Structures are given as structure tokens and as C-alpha cells.
Automatic annotation (TrEMBL):
<keyword id="KW-0804">Transcription</keyword>
<dbReference type="GO" id="GO:0006950">
    <property type="term" value="P:response to stress"/>
</dbReference>
<keyword id="KW-0805">Transcription regulation</keyword>
<protein>
    <submittedName>
        <fullName>DNA-binding MarR family transcriptional regulator</fullName>
    </submittedName>
</protein>
<dbReference type="GO" id="GO:0003677">
    <property type="term" value="F:DNA binding"/>
</dbReference>
<dbReference type="GO" id="GO:0005737">
    <property type="term" value="C:cytoplasm"/>
</dbReference>
<dbReference type="InterPro" id="IPR036390">
    <property type="entry name" value="WH_DNA-bd_sf"/>
</dbReference>
<dbReference type="InterPro" id="IPR000835">
    <property type="entry name" value="HTH_MarR-typ"/>
</dbReference>
<dbReference type="InterPro" id="IPR055166">
    <property type="entry name" value="Transc_reg_Sar_Rot_HTH"/>
</dbReference>
<keyword id="KW-0963">Cytoplasm</keyword>
<dbReference type="GO" id="GO:0003700">
    <property type="term" value="F:DNA-binding transcription factor activity"/>
</dbReference>
<feature type="domain" description="HTH marR-type">
    <location>
        <begin position="28"/>
        <end position="158"/>
    </location>
</feature>
<dbReference type="Pfam" id="PF22381">
    <property type="entry name" value="Staph_reg_Sar_Rot"/>
</dbReference>
<keyword id="KW-0238">DNA-binding</keyword>
<dbReference type="InterPro" id="IPR039422">
    <property type="entry name" value="MarR/SlyA-like"/>
</dbReference>
<dbReference type="InterPro" id="IPR036388">
    <property type="entry name" value="WH-like_DNA-bd_sf"/>
</dbReference>
Length: 168
């Protein structure tokens, strides 16, 4: 049985969130659309700011992981970003071509590819901090509100993935 089975937030939901029992499939009442719309708006806010520092949003996500860990194996990078290797490989290759990271096979286990931030990639971090602050300001939310929303969304994602260890 999937984590989504019987979950009113997935698939067809034949009841109103107010408990009235009325069938309500209005777009404006859908959690999925609210999340989708908000996500598009946030990424749209990032896009021009990231272009100024030479990154796409997908590249920015990869760099966030590298700024946090400096070196990670490719499998962990995929896991941290919830992306498959086919989706992530072109992003990593492009960042490597731009000199922001390197890839190499681990000597002890050649099946494992390690991804490492370069000096040039680390130098970009300070510019990314400025971008992050501008996006935070654009939300109009306080730091506490942003933290609470992020934590709630992370918990929702964990529940929807069936990751009980992370979900609160």
C-alpha cells in the first residue's frame, strides 16, 4: 500500500477540507495547486537573481549541497535533491564545464562518483547568500514565519514520501 493510499491530499478527494462532505474539485481549493503555484512563484523570483551569478535554479540546488558538504558522492546528491541520476547528470556536467565542481571516481570503489566543489564554486557562495536574502525579503514574511513554513513543508514532503523518521 502506498503512502498516498487513503490520503485526502492525494488523488481524488471527494470531500471539502472544511468537512462539509460536498464534492469540491475547484482548482482554488486544491492543496496540490497551491503548492505548485507557490513553487513556481518562488522559483520565478530566484531565476533572474541566479542568472546574475551564472546559475540556473537546478544548478543552485546542487551548489547548495556542495556548499554544505564540499564533497558528496553522486548517489547522495541525487537523494538529497530527490532527483534521479538521469535528471541530475546534465546539471552536474554543466556545472563541471563551468568550473564550479569536479567529478571523479573514488579510488577505493570506482563505482562511486564523488562530486567536489572547486575554489571557483566556493567563491560563488557569497553571491548566493545575497540572492537568498533578496528572495526571503520578497516573500514579505518574517524569519520566524519562513522557518515555520519551511519546516511544515519539509514535514509534509516527508509524510507524503512515507518517510516517518523525518515527518513530525
Amino acid at each position: 500500500m502506498s503512502a498516498a493510499a487513503g490520503n485526502p491530499l492525494c488523488g481524488t478527494y471527494a470531500g471539502r477540507m472544511d468537512g462539509s462532505g460536498e464534492s469540491d474539485l475547484m482548482l482554488s481549493e486544491q492543496l496540490c495547486f497551491a503548492l505548485y503555484s507557490a513553487s513556481r512563484a518562488v522559483v520565478g523570483c530566484y531565476r533572474p537573481l541566479l542568472e546574475e551569478i551564472g546559475l540556473t535554479y537546478s544548478q543552485y540546488l546542487v551548489m547548495l549541497v556542495l556548499w554544505e558538504h564540499d564533497t558528496v558522492d553522486f548517489g547522495r546528491l541525487c537523494g538529497d535533491l530527490y532527483l534521479d541520476s538521469g535528471s541530475l547528470s546534465p546539471v552536474v556536467k554543466r556545472l563541471e564545464a563551468n568550473g564550479l565542481l569536479t567529478r571523479h571516481r573514488r579510488a577505493a570503489d570506482e563505482r562511486t562518483v564523488e562530486v567536489r566543489c572547486t575554489t571557483q564554486g566556493r567563491a560563488l557562495r557569497d553571491e548566493a547568500v545575497r540572492v537568498q536574502r533578496q528572495v526571503e525579503e520578497a516573500t514579505g514574511l518574517s524569519r520566524d514565519e519562513l522557518v515555520r513554513m519551511r519546516d511544515d513543508l519539509n514535514a509534509l514532503g516527508a509524510r507524503m514520501r512515507g518517510d516517518a523518521a523525518v515527518a513530525r
